[in-house]
Amino acid sequence: MGFLFHISRCNQYDLTEFLPWHISDKRVGYVHKKHSKYLEAFPKFFMSMPDHFALSDALVNPEDRSMAIEEMLEILRTEEPKLRKLNEKYAVKENINGETLMEIDRGAADFFGILNTGVHLNGVTNDHENKKMWVATRSHQRTTFPGELDNMVAGGQPSNITRQENVIKECYEEASIPEELAKASEPKGFVSYNMQAGTTLRRKILYVYDLYLPNSFIPLPNDNEVEKFDLVSVEAVMETIKNRPNAFKYNCNLVIIDFLIREGLINEDLENFNKLVQGLRCPII
Predict the structure, then answer these.
(1) Phi, psi of 131 (to 5 degrees)
(2) Is-contact 10 193, C-beta < 8 A?
(3) φ, ψ (nearest 5 deg) of residue 168
(4) Secondary element (H or E) of residue 136
């Protein structure tokens, strides 16, 4: 299938199927038109306009907005199974540098099409002559992408901690990486994409980290989200991404392709190299 397949898959959407929603004239997300009925059922919270929804101006601060939407979600969860409560809050912003206008439960982030972020970490052995990468296999008991391959560490970004704190937290929770070792992780930029999944819209920025690990370190699953870790040559990981498009969870492919480009393993010799590089950081709609 090739590397560009992953760029294309993560940027498939039809925006005509969605309506934007605003807070104080700031566009903060998109709701599928099939879900309009849910917002229309709460006129004290949402005003229905010809081409968008607007959160009520009576909700004047982030706390009031967050409480109102959580009240709404408590009712909607009985009707809409996609709206699982995950008890982790995401910030709702107009753009990545904008102020936090409210918070929303992680389980509703894609339903409301908000911009959300996460951290993904490449765990790599520090033998620079024969690099290997720790690859996680997601638990078969997970409700999302069970059994698929994953980055060594990955997680969404809660609103109440910094990215660095999140990296340290996720390192311990997912791979039993101690704090002092996790602190050595190196930020390497980001990948971004806009992806429709049925009647939801994923607008994501994933901040990428590399962590070079001593050969003596063996990661251990710590939170039941990961089934096992395997140490795989970087070349074998590259072949998997190129030839087995459904082996890794969809967005992990972008993170690893970015790593392979930075390592020079994917370079200008590849046809459509510039398109691949540009596609890793698609502007958020």
Answers:
(1) -65, 140
(2) yes
(3) -65, -45
(4) strand 132-138
| Long-range own/partner contacts, residues 73-76 (CB < 8 A, 24 or more apart) | 73/105, 73/108, 76/38
Model pTM score: 0.95
Give every residue of the chain whose pLDDT is below 50, as ranges.
Answer: none
Residue 239 neighbours by CB under 8 Å, 6+ apart:
none
- Which residues sit opposite 104 in a β-bridge? 90
Report the half-sphere exposure of 55 (CA within 13 A, side-chain side). 26
Q: Are 105 and 89 in contact (CB under 8 A)?
A: yes
Distance from first CA to last CA of the chain, Å, rounded?
A: 26
CB 119 within 8 A of CB 190: no
Please report the domains of the chain, with CATH numbers, ordered by start residue: 4-11+116-192+204-279 (3.90.79.10), 15-115 (3.30.750.160)
Residue-wise pLDDT for 113-162, tens only, equals 999 999 999 999 977 678 999 999 999 999 899 999 999 999 999 999 99
